[in-house]
Amino acid sequence: MEQVRVTIWNEHIHERTEPAVAAIYPDGIHGAIAAALGAMDGLEVRTATLADPEHGLTDAVLAATDTLVWWGHVAHDQVADAVVDRVQAAVLGGMGLVVLHSGHESRIFRRLMGTTCSLRWRESGEHERLWNLRPDHPVLAGIGDAVELAEEEMYGEPFAIPDPDELLMIGWFPGGEVFRSLCTWTRGAGRIVYLQPGHETHPTYHHPDIQRIIGNACRWAAPRIRGAAPTSLNAQPREPRTAPSTGDA
User: Fold this and answer.
1) What CA–CA distances, in Å, run from 7 to 62, 70, 98?
2) Are 33 and 205 in contact (CB under 8 A)?
């Protein structure tokens, strides 16, 4: 099996500043996801954080990344323009992107979606049921009819995203809200996955089904082709042109 090279990017702020979050994710959210994905067949995992030089997302790192996993929340505006440009170009050129939870408001996701990506939310630690709409889809391989999360932040519609290419899961909350919780798009040559659950104060990324979905998404989003993002080109004709007839005998 060919290895899929995964880079997991995380702000890594909550875990360093909030004891309650550090208790759940002592090695950071990126560390918890990396440990789970690193134990799966076919995935080669590295991590990067906001505080790293160039946020850990240099040209060399992105060139060696098949799928980038993104978690952000309170520091979206601290991500440098050059890094957003670089990640966008990599996705258009074929790199996969898996955006998690509050990454819906990240600069890179909003740019690729072309919308505000706004939604309704409530921090209440409610039960969430994620209904599996596409058990035939590779991202949901090994997942049953539904995933039950004992506690999660409520995300509710309307979710200001372009219509997904594929809607894979719908989340339901006891307050009556529903949400498009697992969606896919294609931008350029790159595949994008958005997965909703994963608030920092809940142990969502320790749940085996959520870990499996992220791992599946990394494999599915990995490049089918990889190259530079398409650019405009002054194209020369492929067939020789002949001078137009003057109509003279």
Assistant:
1) 8, 9, 10
2) yes
Q: Order across the sheet with 4-10: list the strands.
A: 43-49, 4-10, 67-71, 96-100, 190-195, 178-187, 166-172, 120-132, 146-156
pLDDT of residue 232: 84
Q: What CATH number matches the domain at 4-113+181-221, 3.40.50.880, 3.40.50.2300, 3.30.70.240, 3.30.390.10?
A: 3.40.50.880
Instruction: Sketch the domain layout of the chain as residue ranges.
Output: 4-113+181-221
Region 170-186: mean pLDDT is 98
pLDDT per residue as tens digits for the range 125-159: 999 999 999 999 999 999 999 999 999 999 999 99
Distant-in-sequence, close-in-space partners of 177: CB < 8 Å, separation ≥ 6: 120, 154, 155, 156, 157
User: Is the pLDDT reported for residue 67 higher than 70?
Assistant: yes
Q: Which helix (H) or strand (E) covers residue 128, if one does? A: strand 120-132
Name beta bridge partners: 196: none
